């Protein structure tokens, strides 16, 4: 991985946060060239087809899964490093800082997450429960057909909290540490986890390395995401949000998702997570928060306000770090 000083990486992360919040990923660019995650996904598909053969033993598939993760992360990072090396030969350093930031912002989901969660509230208001179920099905993996309005809202808020951590905070965190190669590395591993890191007969062995590595690299971001949500909470709810994280986050089946979900639940005085259905199978997840499970559309609106405040706090921290990193010692 190409190593840059913090005087480069922190400004890259801060500028990427600002650019992505303002413009997101332009639809015209998506139509013309697709999205970097789609390119990584194609590589993962190819490796899954080539290396994850059903006739291989579980042990062999586990080791081939390790090889796959090395390739999934290594190839995009190597290409990124080669392009940056070439760019620094032809462009001045300030211009390349901007190039890194513009590329990094394509791997942050701040604006798109806002749009998708807002769509759930719009669906509920305009088309009732059917509209809410249809919208929330675009952002969660659980069964949505049997959800009532409270279940739809809770699902949207849980997705908002969890994706704030792994779709916003984590890529910006790794950009702040390693610049563009850092966010590319993170997104490659995270995409691998979402595609092959499942406890299914096909992927339990082959995807184990991807799932374990994704857990590890999301650990710092999940804690930072919880902190941002606690700071973003109304003053009278900050203690409750902090207590919800301390009490409930360790009880979540994920080592990371419980942190932002518990912070969101405590800040909104709700109960999130809990039992839910995946492909007809009931999963007995622990509840996050000590409030009511009867969430409403108004609670979804409050969650979106909380999310926006948390994004502003995160961006502020990155900007402050960028300014401090450029002050001569």
UniProtKB/TrEMBL annotation:
Signal peptide: none annotated. Pfam families: CobD_Cbib. It is found in: Cell membrane. The keyword Iron does not apply. Pathway: Cofactor biosynthesis; adenosylcobalamin biosynthesis. The chain crosses the membrane at residues 26-44, 64-84, 168-186, 310-327. Keywords: Cell membrane, Cobalamin biosynthesis, Membrane, Transmembrane, Transmembrane helix. It is a multi-pass membrane protein. It comes from the Bacteria. Converts cobyric acid to cobinamide by the addition of aminopropanol on the F carboxylic group. Belongs to the CobD/CbiB family. PANTHER family: COBALAMIN BIOSYNTHESIS PROTEIN CBIB. This is Cobalamin biosynthesis protein CobD. The lineage of its organism: Bacteria, Pseudomonadati, Pseudomonadota, Alphaproteobacteria, Acetobacterales.
């Amino acid at each position: 991985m190409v190593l840059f000083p913090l005087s480069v990486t922190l400004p890259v992360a801060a500028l990427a946060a600002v650019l992505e919040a303002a413009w997101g990923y332009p639809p015209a660019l998506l139509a013309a060239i697709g999205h970097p995650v789609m390119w990584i996904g194609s590589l993962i598909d190819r490796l899954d087809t080539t290396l994850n053969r059903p006739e291989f033993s579980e042990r062999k598939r586990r080791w081939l899964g390790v090889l796959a993760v090395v390739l999934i992360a290594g190839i995009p990072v190597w290409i990124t490093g080669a392009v940056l090396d070439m760019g620094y030969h032809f462009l001045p350093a300030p211009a390349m800082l901007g190039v890194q930031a513009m590329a990094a912002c394509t791997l942050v989901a701040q604006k798109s997450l806002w749009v998708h969660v807002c769509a759930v509230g719009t669906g509920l208001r305009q088309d009732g429960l059917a509209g809410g179920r249809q919208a929330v099905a675009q952002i969660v993996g659980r069964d949505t057909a049997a959800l009532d309005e409270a279940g739809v809202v809770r699902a949207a808020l849980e997705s908002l909290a969890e994706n704030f951590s792994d779709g916003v905070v984590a890529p910006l965190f790794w950009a702040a540490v390693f610049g563009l190669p850092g966010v590319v590395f993170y997104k490659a591993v995270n995409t691998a986890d979402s595609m092959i890191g499942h406890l299914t007969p096909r992927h339990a062995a082959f995807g184990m390395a991807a799932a374990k590595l994704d857990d590890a690299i999301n650990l710092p971001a999940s804690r930072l995401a919880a902190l941002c949500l606690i700071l973003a909470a109304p003053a009278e709810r900050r203690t409750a949000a902090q207590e919800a994280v301390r009490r409930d986050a360790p009880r979540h089946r994920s080592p990371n998702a419980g942190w932002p979900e518990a912070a969101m639940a405590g800040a909104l005085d709700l109960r999130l997570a809990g039992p839910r259905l995946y492909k007809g199978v009931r999963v007995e997840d622990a509840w996050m928060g000590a409030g009511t499970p009867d969430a409403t559309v108004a609670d979804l609106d409050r969650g979106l306000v909380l999310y926006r405040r948390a994004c502003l706090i995160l961006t502020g921290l990155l900007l402050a770090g960028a300014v401090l990193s450029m002050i001569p010692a």
